[in-house]
Specification:
This protein has one domain: Orthogonal Bundle (Tetracycline Repressor, domain 2). Helix content is 69%, strand content 3%. It is built from 10 helices and 2 strands, in the order H-H-H-H-H-H-H-H-H-H-E-E. Strands 1-2 form a two-stranded antiparallel ribbon. The longest helix has 25 residues.
Length: 184
């Protein structure tokens, strides 16, 4: 493969990973096929296995891509004691806009259902756990992460109802803006 072909292969691979990260969050890993990803990326599915060893390998890269995308949002919180950054992050995270933005939404909420299945790949679970730790590091509290991610999953599951809006409101109200702890 010459340099131009290698460069194009890298561009294609990046497009496939970004497309998969979006589609998996929109519809789930289980429902989205390799053909779906490749078609959405504008490529033939025949080239998939030249780029990836398996769908599991793509899922892991897609999860990492999604976590990288969200790192910037997390970086808005300078440290767990940054009340202003925390409040801004919580307002954005626990919003109707985020609830409706499945494809570029939180990777923890987007991938949790697939990773929670008994047959989930151990390496993928390990990467997911690292993602949780990134959120814990910024929020300073495991309970806070569980609260926001759980609230987002429930709000999405009940989207279009008053219950969904209430879940977001009450999850947000459960936080004291001066500290990342959930009121007990």
């Amino acid at each position: 493969m010459n340099r131009a072909q290698q460069a194009q292969a890298e561009v294609n691979r990046k497009r496939v990973v970004e497309t998969a990260a979006r589609l998996f969050r929109e519809d789930s890993v289980a429902k989205v096929s390799v053909v779906d990803v490749m078609t959405e990326a504008g490529l033939t599915h025949g080239g998939f296995y030249r780029q990836f060893a398996s769908k599991d390998a793509l899922v892991q890269e897609a999860l990492n891509q999604a976590l990288d995308e969200h790192q910037e949002r997390l970086d808005a919180i300078r440290d767990p004691a940054d009340a202003e950054g925390l409040a801004r992050f919580l307002d954005n995270y626990l919003s109707e806009v985020h609830r409706e933005s499945l494809g570029d939404g939180c990777p923890l909420a987007g991938f949790a259902g697939d990773i929670a299945t008994p047959g989930a790949d151990a390496d993928l679970r390990a990467e997911f756990a690292k993602g949780i730790e990134l959120y814990v590091e910024k929020l300073g509290d495991t309970t806070a992460v569980a609260t926001i991610v759980g609230a987002m999953i429930l709000a999405r599951a009940t989207a279009g109802t008053e219950l969904s809006d209430r879940i977001l409101r009450e999850a947000r109200a459960s936080f004291n803006d001066e500290a990342p702890r959930v009121h007990g």
